[in-house]
């Protein structure tokens, strides 16, 4: 699932990639203050995120159905597609994270 850019966005640097048999993690920097990360795994292997004391809200937008929540300064979009679980999170707002999520395609 490489990231397909759906709108004009300058991603300065992919800072880090984590590859384990259970999941992949990608970290991207947009500028000196903004970043986002993408974690993905097979749907039968869950990536757990601390959502304690967060308001978790369901959403259905841009072809993505999942959950959104904010924890401290980070926004999270979590969803499943094609047998995989995804978590897209960072300092971007929910609409931007959903656009990124909608741009993830399988090659």
Produce the secondary structure layout:
Layout: E1 13-19, E2 23-29, E3 35-42, E4 57-61, E5 64-71, E6 74-81, E7 84-90, H1 94-102
Antiparallel strand pairs: 1-2, 2-3, 3-7, 4-5, 5-6, 6-7
Question: Brief overview, please?
Answer:
The protein has one helix spanning 94-102, and strands at residues 13-19, 23-29, 35-42, 57-61, 64-71, 74-81, 84-90. It has 107 residues and is mainly β.
Keywords summarizing the entry:
mainly beta; globular; 47% strand; 7 strands; 107 residues; seven-stranded antiparallel sheet; 1 helix
What does this entry look like structurally?
The chain has 107 residues and is mainly beta. Helix content is 8%, strand content 47%. It is built from one helix and seven strands; from the N terminus they run βββββββα. It has one helix at residues 94-102, and strands at residues 13-19, 23-29, 35-42, 57-61, 64-71, 74-81, 84-90. The chain has a seven-stranded antiparallel β-sheet, covered by helices on one side.
């Amino acid at each position: 699932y490489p990231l397909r850019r759906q709108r004009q966005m300058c991603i300065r640097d992919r800072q880090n990639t984590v590859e384990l048999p259970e999941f992949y993690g990608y970290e991207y920097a947009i500028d000196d203050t903004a970043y986002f990360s993408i974690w993905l795994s097979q749907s039968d292997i869950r990536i757990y995120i601390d959502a304690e004391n967060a308001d978790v809200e369901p959403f259905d937008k841009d072809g993505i159905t999942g959950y959104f929540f904010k924890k401290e300064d980070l926004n999270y979009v979590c969803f499943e597609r094609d047998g995989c679980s995804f978590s897209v999170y960072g300092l971007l707002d929910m609409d931007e994270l959903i656009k990124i999520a909608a741009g993830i395609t399988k090659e």
